Amino acid sequence: xRFKAGLSFRxxxxxxxxxxxxxxxxxREPEVPEPSVHKEIKQKLLEIGNLQNHIAEExxxxxxxxxxxxxRRVQQSVPTYVFEVHVRxxxxxxxxxxxxxxxxxxxxxxxxxxxxxxxxxxxxxRGSFHEIKRHLKFISLxxxxxxxxxxxALINLETRTGNVTIVKLKxxxxxxxxxxxxxxxxxxxxxxxxxxxxxxxxYSLSRLATFLx
Length: 213
Description:
Layout: H1 14-24, H2 36-51, E1 55-62, E2 65-72, E3 81-86, H3 91-105, E4 108-113, H4 117-125, E5 136-140, H5 141-178, H6 186-189, H7 198-208
Parallel strand pairs: 3-4, 4-5
Antiparallel strand pairs: 1-2, 2-3
């Protein structure tokens, strides 16, 4: 479509005018959403961290940008575990962030990626990143999915077992009262079951499930 500029003005057809304006509109690149696999693995790492009683966060800001996932022991602590998920993109940059996290906080550092990544990682840790070679752990995407499934299955089993055990424990306490025993004598039999730490309660309930059947 060609137009010749002149000094005079004339009325343009509206359809033609819109067509001309469209030709001059800036073509912007569409915003690329975060790859679904990258997002999926980050979510699974967050859930695994929460299931293990860590404070799990994604997109944790520090001076080299953002770390994909971190786990902390308490709210005010620095990251104890740091994960970078590498599905595609700049592996060198991911390793640089992990190295910096190790240097800053002495964190346990993990690169989560494809089965083909270890060869490239091994090459880089023999050169630029040799300082973290002994500390860096690689986890495949498949292993994260497997661990996530196993953790959820275990928690579901513990929850079901725990609920059944609580009912049986109540029955046992009632039986002790009928037999004339003091209620607090159960503390001697099950010392950890009355503590405030929920993880120890879960553990105790699971251990006692067979005994109380």
